[in-house]
Amino acid sequence: MTDSQPKPGLIPWPPVIYAAAIAVSVILGMLYPLPWIGDLLGDILFAAGWVALFGAAALWVTAIRTMMRAKTTLSPTALPDHLVTSGPFGITRNPIYLALTLMLIGVAFVSGIAWFFLFAFIAAFATQKVAIEGEEKILAAKFGKKYRDYAKRVRRWI
């Protein structure tokens, strides 16, 4: 890469953003609990939450394994070694971030703390703005047409 090409940042924003979303959700859930529709649909939402949590775990593990097999970095602050387009990356360009978002939604449904649901979307939006858009510029600069073709074929989220 030359000096004019984008570089990764120094702060691993996605883990920081999702950790903050969890902390704020727990604190707000204790201090200012929001009404929850659990009385009406409690068992269904609880079950859906566990399905979301298992799905998030499976997606996360599969994405990590796919990246390790491709021998590319897992760090959001490092330059990628290879463009990974197989496994869950064939369905979404950001399976790890999607798994983290799905985890927050699952926790909301299991715990009944509505703040998790709200902060899942806030965390996803913040991650897209401070991490994903920059990562995509780096991938486009490093892998060129191959990345651009991949980005046309596969959605950013789902």
Walk me through this protein's architecture:
This protein is mainly alpha-helical and 158 residues long. Helices cover 68% and strands 0% of the residues. It has helices spanning 13-31, 38-69, 95-111, 114-143, 145-153. The longest helix has 32 residues, at 38-69. The radius of gyration is 17 Å and the shape is elongated.
Quick description:
The chain has 158 residues and is mainly alpha-helical. The protein contains 5 helices and no strands.
Task: Report the portion of residues in β strands.
Answer: under 5%
Could you spell the SSE succession in H and E letters? Answer: HHHHH
User: Which structural class matches the secondary elements?
Assistant: mainly alpha
- Mean of residue pLDDT values: 92
Number of DSSP helical runs: 5
**What is the total tally of β strands?**
0
Straight-line distance between termini? 30 Å
Low-confidence runs (pLDDT<50, min 5 residues)? none
Indicate the percent of residues in helices: 55-70%
The outline comes out as elongated
What radius of gyration results from the CA coordinates? 17 Å
Report on the biggest sheet.
none
